[in-house]
Amino acid sequence: MIVVIGAFGFIGTYLVDELLMEKNEVIATGRNEVSMGYLLKKGASFVKLDITKADDFYSLPTQGVKAVVLLAATLPANVRNYNPFDYVNTNVNGTLNVLEYCRINKIPKIIFTSSYADVRNLWAKDKPITEKMPRDFLFTGDHALYVITKNMACDLIEHYSQEYGIQGIVFRLPPVYGYGPHLEIYENGKYYKSGFQVFVEKAIRGEQIEIWGDSKISRDIVYIKDVISAFISALKSTRAAGLYNITSGVPLSLDEQVRTTIKVFSLKDKISGIVYRPDKKSTGFSYVFDITKAKQDFGYAPKFISFERMLLDYKEEIKKGRCDFLVASRKKSRDT
Q: What is the pTM of this model?
């Protein structure tokens, strides 16, 4: 039995689907009962859980749990009104409650997701970041409390690993691409469409796409299905422990991203053009991560390194209507 905490988000939904396909018994938890019907139809059991409330954990099973996957978090992309206590209550106290649940019930493994911004000051185009490099992050901006509290949660997991023998695994994730409810986000409390979504919509309409700043800025992104494969492999591994970079390991330039988006999404009779605007300020930065450790410890092997292959699969998922219920739920929540 595997408990997925925060199962109604983008990553959680894909993960539960895959776990069920592999014939695992899954307990899906969350606070949003709107999505409950979807997961019940898939074959998962549902438990309403607020990780900030210790008493809620009495509703979870105490025997037969092989692992807990902790995805629930407060993050800037979902925050309309900034409140530092929300970050601490969810990301720190909530993680501690989950760890205590694991300790008390002798659950041997926990997998947690953390932020690639914990090494924000190390980002560079040609210097892959390894897990051995020390944290070096910003103490300002809308991501500061998120990163600080995620770091605290990672340290709690390491403490419980060393003190109580729990197999603690942390995935450091960059932006995860894929069809889901994360295409529209909050930044400093204001609602925006992601740059990726803007590019896709303009390509579909055949409109010109502007690239601001340095078009050669390159980022190491990852596709949702590769992330899910990492979870599945780590859940099966007895060796996996500590921090892992879960990315493609390959930099993708902004110019290549836009050109490939136009190739995949533009109609043949209405192809978007590109307008380069180096005079416009861009908030983008280059970064690339080393994924050797994940490859060696549990055989992580990303299949969607080609951005074109990624977009073609993304397009197919839209056609299938995967995660439509999540996108609609997010829109309803935003509009109310």
A: 0.91
